[in-house]
Amino acid sequence: MGSSSVRRPEDLDVVRESYDRVADNYVEMIAATGLGDIRAQPWLRAAMDAFADAVAGRGPVLDVGCGPGTVTAYLVDRGVDASGVDLSPRMIEHARRLYPQCRFDVASATERTGLRTVAELRLPAAAPIGPVVVLVARREQ
Ligand SMILES: C[S@@+](CC[C@H](N)C(=O)[O-])C[C@H]1O[C@@H](n2cnc3c(N)ncnc32)[C@H](O)[C@@H]1O
């Protein structure tokens, strides 16, 4: 595996532990508020549909920082060859439980894990998800 062009952030473990700690509450919150149901939110659905149309036929898509996998799963339903990675193992546990049909891996955007680092990716698009910005990038073939 080649060396990363992105230096490992000093606070990566702190960030991972923080998201691990809030993962259960985050999953409950997106279920309780309906934020986890993209189809129920016209503006969010429109953004996701526009993204899916924009990347159609451009190869696999990687949802970087996928959390519990809401966006990844929606894109897969739309026929996109999408998978997700997240720094937090607990988020990935939830994603795998909620969407067993999808592929999720624990990985940092700053590490080489068979993926290009985000810094090296030429992003075909970035999808803003309400208060959360989710980068969706083409995965290395
Ligand atoms: C606010 S959550 C959003 C989750 C999901 N994208 C969504 O819209 O529900 C941000 C996510 O980014 C992940 N994250 C933070 N830093 C990361 C990194 N360096 N690499 C991969 N994931 C990271 C966190 O673990 C967390 O799950």
From TrEMBL:
One of its GO terms (biological process) is methylation. It holds the Pfam family Methyltransf_25. CDD domains: AdoMet_MTases (cd02440). The keyword Ubl conjugation does not apply. The keyword Methyltransferase applies. InterPro entries: Methyltransf_25, SAM-dependent_MTases_sf. One of its GO terms (molecular function) is methyltransferase activity. Keywords: Methyltransferase, Transferase. It comes from the Bacteria. SUPFAM superfamilies: S-adenosyl-L-methionine-dependent methyltransferases. Residues 61-111 form the Methyltransferase domain. Transmembrane segments: none annotated. This is Class I SAM-dependent methyltransferase.
